[in-house]
Batch of 4 targets.
Target 1
Amino acid sequence: MSNPLANDALLKFGRILTVIVQALLGLGAIALIVAIPVIWLSKSHIAEAMSADSSLSLGATLAAITVVLLLGFVMVSLAFVFFRNLKHIIDSVGEGDPFVPENARRLSVMGWITLGIQVVALPVAGIALLAAKAFEEQNFTVDAGLDLGAIILAVTLFILARVFRHGAAMRADLEGTV
């Protein structure tokens, strides 16, 4: 029996999109890690760009930037794992077998990742704001706060995980009675 979803255009597009996003996130992660030594090697340029009346020392500013880059790397890595799980779910739908316990686990992980990114984003914004004060003449801005859309996404993912868990259990019960 052939699977009608095997050639579904939306699933193919979703898979391609998740692979592209993963590639971009991978490049972003590499860029963030490479930026750390570059920042420290560019101390003199950063010192020139800093405001003369900055309350932060050059060392504190470099440390703050380094922490922001490291936490950014954590956030990008979490997003990479999020999209890897999404790709696996898309693949299982394309194979015609989405209601498996593994997809329920993946959806739960995606929900926790969504919340984790929100938790990490708060100190990133605070530290970035602190570091930006050293460059007042450069007009840096930092936008911070909890993203209500991300919180709603996390709740939706946790609910879908329960739906998938229940669907997998119902299918196992049905297969056991046949």
Target 2
Amino acid sequence: MTDKTGADRRFPPALADAARTSFSYGEDGEGIDFEPYDAFDTAEETTGRLRQWTGNPAVDGDAYRVFGQDGAGGLVALWCARPGRPLTEQPVVYIGSEGECGVVAGDLSGFLWVLADGFGPMAAALYGAGEADEAHETGPGAAPAELAARHATTPRRPAREIIAEAQAEFPAFAEGLWALCR
């Protein structure tokens, strides 16, 4: 499906800090539905999850570094779609528990700014910027914005732009993943 970016499984400092950050989803379902991990899933776990999602026992998970999930069990991962580039420069994707999937951001910095604007990975991947006004009604709280300010290597931009740019750069992500299904 894509070229692999080596066997790099070193957890970026931004993700380690995200694991210590509070993402509030709330009882009313407003907020950021994101549960970060404190390490990448192992290669074996990632392959197992991808095989389960696709129903294809020949698939491997080498191109993905799973670093979180949403409350429904959808996965958030770095997708190694840019050969030879560091993990922090790989796109962030969402692979949902019900067969949905999509691109969230073009890189880790963009993902941090998407969180800072109040979007969870599923909302960004599936609904894009269409939910921006709803996300801003309650606001994401200070923690995601502080996380992005500490670790983003790009200037802040609106989530609408980040999501639209990433989805335009990788328009065939979902189609390519669905093509692996049996």
Target 3
Amino acid sequence: MDHHFVGIPELTDVPRVAVVIDVMRAFTVAAWAFSRGVERIVLASSEGEALALKGSHPGWLALKDGAPAAGFDAVNSPGLLRSRDFTGRTLVQKTTAGTVGALAVANAPLVLCASFVVAGPTARFLRTEDSGPVTFVVTGEGGRADEDLACAEYIGRCTAGGEVEAGPYLQRARTSRAAADLAGGRRSGYHPDDVDLCLEIDRFPFAMVARREESLMVLRPVAVPDISSGIG
């Protein structure tokens, strides 16, 4: 299948199917948030918009990249998020790359957001939808982030079916610049377990689909059955 791998700056046309990749850390964090009970994630274009949405909707929470800041309830770190209880809440997320990439393809008929923790379910969802060629949006480093490209290539291979060895792709991510920056404490809002948590292959059994709901771009989990044993 002829997939395409592009950075955010290279998006010129609206793709039919877009899979937006942010391994470290936006769409690992989003998956963890859903696992901790978040009902939906609203993708914001700026920190100001995130705070405005939170302010106008009682009970909503807001999350950002970097260090904790006034008005925000969480930061973009799976290690710092994994023990929180967000049952039934709406979370507004604004990050440097992941949310930017998702909003850049908001007009595509099908948008998924992904990382290694939902890679298998994402590939199975794409096969179920018989989606055809996919545009993978590699969000980090202007489309050059190896952890995002490795994840995109892995999902692309998995959409063809059959067994795909995840190890080489995970190793590329572990030796990426983003992983080194996180491990070295060069990013704020960081937990020492973040790199390992970002590299847990298929940690969660759902894909994450983003759709317009009124004026908002909203991300929701979609359960995807494991059909690896075949269909009887």
Target 4
Amino acid sequence: MKYLVRDKIFAIGDDYWIEDEQGRHAFLVDGKAMRLRDTLELKAPDGQVLITLRQKMFSLRDSMTIERDGEALASIRRKRLSLLRNHYRVTLVEGTELDVSGRILDREFTVEYDGELLAHISRQWFHVRETYAVNVVREDADAALLVAVAVCVIRMAERED
């Protein structure tokens, strides 16, 4: 399943829809303005909060947390010793680790678990410059989590740049 993200509206406080392949609203990204730290909510079309993304305030390295139902689900940070500048590690609370690598700022990267492709993020499917897709490869994968990971690493890479 591919999810369409319009890239140009990633400012804090802006809300935008992520659409599925059929053009239906799949997720609403709700940017929370007037907060001390970068906070976003990923909502279902009915307004239910699926995932909350928060920038960690006091961290040596830039990192964000992903929460579901008020509980920590994962943390994301750039790998410290990586030959690739754009390599991030997603650590789920139960210990599972996902690797995110590629050209983040170019919107050409992958999310993998133990060498298995979970999602491919790319602009290659679209002719519009400010648009990219999150292609969730595995049917049993948590699409909301993978979309949230893509949004997080892009925000983090843009802050580093």
